[in-house]
Amino acid sequence: MSSKKLSTEFFQSSNVVELARQLVGYRINTYFDNKLTSGIITETEAYAGKGDKACHAHLGRFTKRTAVMYDPGGIAYIYLCYGIHHLFNIVTNTEGNADAILIRAFEPDRGIETMMNRRGKTKLNKTLTSGPGNVSQAIGLNKSHNQTSVCSDDIWLEKTERPSIELIETTRIGIDYAEEDAQLPWRFYDKTSKYVSVK
DNA sequence: TCGACGATGACCT
DNA sequence: GGTCATCGTCGAA
């Protein structure tokens, strides 16, 4: 039990929904420019590969952008949304499945000053790290980290004991185009945290 | 080539 | 509640 760091194998589980559920309460860390930033994940969404209408890899859609999703789990899928925001996902499952988990919010813990600088904030409030675009900016992730490992010395996750989590399972955000799959309860968040994008 | 648009967020009233 | 910034990606032409 000396290492709490999540392994590549952890992310290669075939059940992306269960993994997304599990990650709420776990710790996300990055170490860039000699600065550690970390926090406790409060909100995630599962995207279940080819069979999920909300997933970029729906029906096996394979483009330059989505190619990374088909790689073995344990790496980052980061893409630009609305021309402004970098959204950070973790690819899961084994090669060829294209499952991913979107990290939508976390509760800042270590390196808060660094995160506020990256976000251009002078006051600490929930907007520091709530919302997928804000998450990436706070922990210093951008497209250069696409396809890089999330089990490295620069980016890693850790298991925690998850004290006082009250897990809510509900629908995903911003996927109205996904028809009936928009109704799937594949968003998970901790009701006890204020660091959640949408309650 | 070109046009449409998106797994958003900040700011306004 | 509404508006809009901003640009890479993708599919149509």
Can you offer a commentary on this structure?
The protein is globular. The chain has helices at residues 16-23, 112-119, 132-138; strands at residues 27-32, 35-48, 76-81, 85-92, 99-110, 155-158, 167-170, 187-190. The relative contact order is 0.24. Strands 1, 2, 3, 4, 5, 6, 7 and 8 form an 8-stranded antiparallel sheet that branches. It has 3 helices and 8 strands, in the order αβββββααβββ. It binds a DNA duplex (13 and 13 nucleotides) through β3, β4 and α3.
List the helices and strands and how they pair.
Layout: H1 16-23, E1 27-32, E2 35-48, E3 76-81, E4 85-92, E5 99-110, H2 112-119, H3 132-138, E6 155-158, E7 167-170, E8 187-190
Antiparallel strand pairs: 1-2, 1-6, 2-5, 2-8, 3-4, 4-5, 7-8
The structure holds a DNA duplex (13 and 13 nucleotides).
Q: Summarize model confidence as the mean pLDDT.
A: 96
- Beta fraction of the residues? 25-35%
The coarse overall form would be: globular
Which bin fits the share of residues in helices? 10-25%
- List low-confidence stretches: none
Descriptive keywords:
DNA-binding, eight-stranded antiparallel β-sheet, 3 helices, globular, 12% helix
In short:
The protein is built from three helices and eight strands; from the N terminus they run H-E-E-E-E-E-H-H-E-E-E. Strands 1, 2, 3, 4, 5, 6, 7 and 8 form an eight-stranded antiparallel beta sheet that branches. It has 199 residues and is mainly β.
